[in-house]
Amino acid sequence: MICGFCGHEFDENEGKKGCGGCGGGCHSVHCPRCNYKNPVEPKYMEKLKKLLNRKEKSATEQTGKSDKE
Ligand SMILES: [Zn+2]
């Protein structure tokens, strides 16, 4: 997942789960870099984001290239 605060990409298992003060009932992952509390994203959200990123990238790369009909 990607930290919503510093943008650091890390594995969910790398981060600290839970806020530490609620007995593990809170579903969040702390960023290993800045300790920001990120809400856990469902897997499909991550895929969607990556898909969108790829789309944006390829769109800027092939500007005006593929003009097929
Ligand atoms: Zn962070």
Structure characterization notes:
- By secondary structure, the chain is of the alpha+beta class.
- It has one domain (1-55).
- Helices cover 28% and strands 12% of the residues.
- The protein is built from one helix and three strands.
- Strands 1-2-3 form a three-stranded antiparallel beta sheet, with no helix packed on it.
- The protein is elongated, with a radius of gyration of 17 Å.
- The mean pLDDT is 77.
- Bound molecules: zinc ion.
Strand order within the widest sheet? 1-2-3
Low-confidence stretches: none
Determine the N-to-C terminus distance: 37 Å
* Main sheet makeup: 3 strands, antiparallel
Strand tally, please?
Answer: 3
How many helix segments? 1
State the helicity in percent bands: 25-40%
Strand fraction: 5-15%
What structural class is derived from the secondary structure elements?
A: alpha+beta
Order of helices and strands: EEEH
For the residues shown, what is the average pLDDT?
77
Rg result: 17 Å
The rough form would be described as: elongated
**Domain module count:** 1
Q: What small-molecule ligands were found?
A: zinc ion
